[in-house]
Amino acid sequence: MPAPFSERIDDYIERIGLQLDAVLPPAKHGPEQLHEAMRYAVLNGGKRIRPLLVYAAGECLHVPDALLDAPATAIELIHAFSLVHDDLPAMDDDDLRRGMPTLHRRFDEATAILAADALQPLAFSVLANIDAIPAESRTRLVGLVADACGSIGMTGGQSMDLAAEGRALSADEIESMYSLKTGALIHASIMSVTLLCSDLSAARTTALDAFARSVGIAFQIKDDILDVVGETEVIGKQTGADERLGKATYPGLFGIELAQSRCDELLQHSLDQLDAFDSDADSLRWLARFIVERGN
Prior knowledge:
Blueprint: H1 9-23, H2 32-42, H3 49-61, H4 65-87, E1 96-97, E2 100-101, H5 103-106, H6 109-128, H7 135-149, H8 154-163, H9 171-181, H10 183-194, H11 202-229, H12 232-235, H13 241-245, H14 250-254, H15 256-272, H16 282-293
Antiparallel strand pairs: 1-2
């Protein structure tokens, strides 16, 4: 019987760290400051939830780790790019990320923008250069991640988030925003693995799609709860930022109790989708629970 996923997390985090280090340009290669900033943005820790979801989905569908490295790496590069932009003065104007100065504080605003701009095409280069899968699968992977980070995904969700500042949204409107802002890339983490399977049934694909969508929304609601009840030293970024910026958030509009209740509902819905996978989905079950129950 395999060990619990919790006992393999450190190995997966080390694995993705090595992959990221290998694809990022060395800091000593010019332009040195740009490359140093890119590495700072990506290699400064983090929970690596999205790559872990890739590897957990790979365990569920019996996809070899060697095939999972590229989508896990590319999606984490996209995530890092998004965090740098989120932290900029024109966005959330944050000083801390993962307990360290944000990129524009550590370097300067122009360098932060350029570093993020460079991380995005690097991610697509990683996907475009996967040799071990058919060209059609590479194309579909690129399309999946492009949609997840574009105007119908993460970037669109961030635009909606900025437009909603100071406004009262309905629960459905907030969840629609969350599904793009945060959920789209989490969804891509799971669904990228389905594109590496040649014999996955439509029913199982649909189940994983529903799992990914529920987990993505739950992740953002939990983040917003932690912004209210968490401690800066624990979560690695300044708490209370959402209230200060007038953000439209689930706990801000409906209270902590209802927000946590909705998180729990989404968790149960996501777990229900995995019934058909039996014990193969235990790693995904563990991660879903971790997302909702985490303290940072």
